[in-house]
Design goal:
This protein folds into two domains: 7-154, no CATH class; 168-492, Orthogonal Bundle (Neurolysin, domain 3). 63% of the residues lie in helices and 3% in strands. The protein has helices at 7-35, 42-60, 63-74, 80-98, 101-124, 127-148, 154-162, 168-192, 208-222, 258-276, 293-308, 311-316, 318-325, 331-339, 355-370, 379-391, 417-433, 442-452, 462-468, 475-489, and strands at 229-233, 239-243, 246-251. The chain is globular, with a radius of gyration of 22 Å.
Length: 493
């Protein structure tokens, strides 16, 4: 039985399929851009994506389509799922109504080209190569905020694109609540940590082909239907979903430190699972996948931290890890490797405590740039100064500093705070599930997540979904978890 019965909603969804199809084509083009596209294809790809974005805007602003949305918005007989469709479309409509077509096209073209330039700049450790593109990206994000409108900070308009209704005041209140406890936890962990040197596995070379086979083996345990799912390689791990029958993730590989690839892959699987388990009835509709990035990041961080870093996971796949590194390993050795607390240069590899200082740094930089208080050309120095302030270390290379993340090249300004919010929410989902930390319980966890989160797609806002699960966002849950875990982890070093 279809989830949609209202006649106006059915008309909306019929018209929406053309918009969905354009989004699908754009998503495939973006996936190829980040994986297999030859570098010189960037200009043509940017042109194509720019044109697609303006065609999509025209379809959204079609008078008959807008009229249907307005009619549905006034209706008092809609189901919860139908109200979700109207909410998402109304939010998107404001975006398309306020942004000029030429702006959308130019922004899409710029970010497509910038992604390729960022990759080159990172590989060559050359910030100057990327600087002019990054400067334009932040200029256009400031313009976007102006078009969209805001009450307090222009940064709020950008936050809203990734988490509906989120404001910088809320983000700062959250950071203010967690900053001191995390600083205390870090100081305690470093004091207890007798092994201050690099862990032996951090510098351990590994066989990439054998690790690729292990990654595939892990995914096969997590998700049996690989005809709907695939893993590829990219410069920065990411997930993209075209539907619940075609969702793709990537990871990366290096000469040493196999945990970088493995945990990144587990992280991306959490994103993928959300979309793979979205209800069939919601596909090809505005609510077919999760549009709350906080919820999305809560899923990826749940799998990375509560599954991937756990002893049951390590024990189950220890033989594959041994084959990849070419020597015997113990569960305790790998556990201490995956859970070592120590300030590091890279956000994506950070432990569960220092991770949030990486996010605070990026938040302060983004907000400062959008509000005109900072300049792009000064970013390497600003980045290094904030790394020194927050974590007491300074990157020697911009590739390990200001160039490490792909987000800015794609124009995604306002995304980073969702990582910390999602991480803290993941601890609440884990507690709410109450399912044993065991590989035999993976299926039970997936079923619980499907029934309580995934199957709804983006029917509900973050607050609505929490209320549906009789929850409120509570940072204390994750802080308590960290205190308990890291008073014990140190004894394993």
């Amino acid at each position: 039985m279809t989830a949609f019965k209202n006649k106006i909603i059915l008309q909306i969804l019929s018209k929406y399929k053309d918009i969905w199809a354009l989004g699908y084509a754009s998503a495939v083009a973006y996936w190829d851009l980040d994986t297999y596209m030859p570098e010189k294809g960037a200009r043509a790809r940017g042109e194509a994506l720019g044109r697609l974005s303006t065609i999509r805007q025209k379809l959204f602003l079609d008078k008959s389509f807008v009229s249907l949305i307005n009619q549905a918005e006034r209706s008092k007989t809609l189901s919860e799922v139908e109200r979700g469709v109207v909410r998402v479309l109304t939010h998107d409509l404001k975006y398309y109504e306020k942004l000029p077509a030429k702006f959308l096209e130019d922004f899409s073209r710029l970010t497509s080209e910038a992604t390729v330039i960022w990759r080159e700049a990172k590989n060559k450790n050359n910030f100057k190569l990327f600087e002019p593109y990054l400067s334009k990206i932040f200029t256009m994000n400031r313009q976007m905020a102006g078009y969209l409108g805001y009450k307090n900070s222009p940064y709020d308009a950008l936050l809203d694109l990734f988490e509906e209704g989120l404001t910088s005041r809320e983000v700062e209140s959250f950071f203010g609540e967690i900053k001191t406890p995390l600083s205390e936890l870090l100081a305690q962990a470093m004091k207890l940590n007798k092994n201050r040197k690099s862990h032996s596995l951090e510098g351990q070379a590994y066989n990439q082909e054998k690790l690729k086979r292990l990654n595939q083996k892990i995914l096969s345990l997590f998700w049996s239907d690989m005809s709907r799912f695939r893993l590829d390689t990219s410069g920065h791990p990411f997930t993209i979903s075209f539907s619940n029958t075609d969702t793709r993730i990537t990871t990366y590989y290096h000469k040493t430190n196999f945990g970088r690839s493995l945990l990144a892959m587990v992280h991306e699987f959490g994103h993928a699972l959300y979309d793979l388990q979205s209800a069939d009835d919601l596909q090809m509709t505005p609510i077919g996948s999760g549009n709350s990035i906080v919820i999305h990041e809560s899923q990826s961080r749940l799998w990375e931290n509560f599954v991937g870093r756990g002893r049951p996971f390590i024990k189950h796949f220890l033989k594959g890890m041994e084959q990849a590194v070419g020597r015997k390993l113990s569960v305790a050795e790998v556990y201490s490797y995956f859970n070592k607390v120590e300030p590091g240069l890279l956000r994506i590899e950070a432990d569960e405590i220092t991770y949030h200082f990486h996010i605070m740094l990026r938040y302060e930089i983004e907000k400062g740039l959008i509000e005109g208080k900072l300049r792009v050309k000064d970013l390497p120095e600003i980045w290094n100064a904030k790394m020194k302030e927050y974590l007491g270390i300074v990157p020697k290379r911009d590739s390990d500093g200001v160039l490490q993340d792909i987000h800015w090249s794609g124009g995604m300004v306002g995304y980073f705070p969702t990582y910390s919010l999602g991480t803290f929410l993941s601890a609440q989902w884990e507690k709410q599930m109450g399912i044993a930390d065991s590989m035999s319980c993976v299926g039970r966890k997936e079923k619980w997540l499907k029934e309580h989160i995934h199957k709804y797609g983006s029917t509900y806002t973050l607050k609505e979904l929490l209320a549906k699960n009789k929850m409120k966002f509570d940072p204390a849950v994750n802080l308590d978890y960290l205190r308990k875990k890291y008073s014990k982890v140190q004894n394993d070093y």
